[in-house]
Amino acid sequence: DAKTTQPPSMDCAEGRAANLPCNHSTISGNEYVYWYRQIHSQGPQYIIHGLKNNETNEMASLIITEDRKSSTLILPHATLRDTAVYYCIGLIYNQGGKLIFGQGTELSVKP
Amino acid sequence: NAGVTQTPKFQVLKTGQSMTLQCAQDMNHEYMSWYRQDPGMGLRLIHYSVGAGITDQGEVPNGYNVSRSTTEDFPLRLLSAAPSQTSVYFCASSLTTGGNEQYFGPGTRLTVT
What we know:
The structure holds 2 protein chains of 2 kinds. Chain A is mainly β. Chain A has no helices and 9 strands. Helix content of chain A is about 0%, strand content about 45%. In chain A, the strands form 2 sheets. In chain A, strands 1-9-8-3-4 form a 5-stranded mixed sheet, with no helix packed on it. In chain A, a hairpin with a 5-residue loop joins strand 6 (about 60-65) and strand 7 (about 70-75). Chain A starts with 8 loop residues before the first strand and ends with a strand. By secondary structure, chain B is an all-beta fold. In chain B, strands 2, 4, 5, 6, 9, 10 and 11 form a 7-stranded mixed sheet that branches. Chain B has a 4-stranded antiparallel sheet with strand order 1-3-8-7, with no helix packed on it. The termini of chain B are far apart. The interface of A and B includes residues 41, 42, 46 and 101 of A.
């Protein structure tokens, strides 16, 4: 699995875009970048994943650099309910679901 | 769909007691797994199953047993509880054979005294 590095914490104003960075310089060619989040005391929630193209769904956008050494998760209009720990994980597609959660980024959305 | 459900939500055990944490999903997912999360730490995989009748060990399997007799249920058994097993336990399931897009239950908070 690729080693990922994320800032331990970030703040964001409510209604603004939250941009969460992740470095994964050792990612291999067949590893996808997955993002999960964990709201306090709840189970983790899958957000989005991508290989090399930018991806968007109803929750977020994922921007992956051309060299695939880093990516950014974008929450376009952050709300207080987006306050959570966000995890960036590198996974081979048929990993067998062996998610390895690092320390993640604690995002605080403030009014 | 109820999604992934876990019972009980809270449990206190004495050292040496045994118990079963229940996990069920109604999404017809083949893949199910159990994680534990200790304070201030990420989740660690205990056991997982890629389908009924098939289970395998994860990162921290010692002290836990699992079985998968149906697609819907994946119980986790603590054989002889120890204080080191005090943790929050999460069950997850996934539709894909790769299992990377997982749906998590609300967790069971277990304290062993």
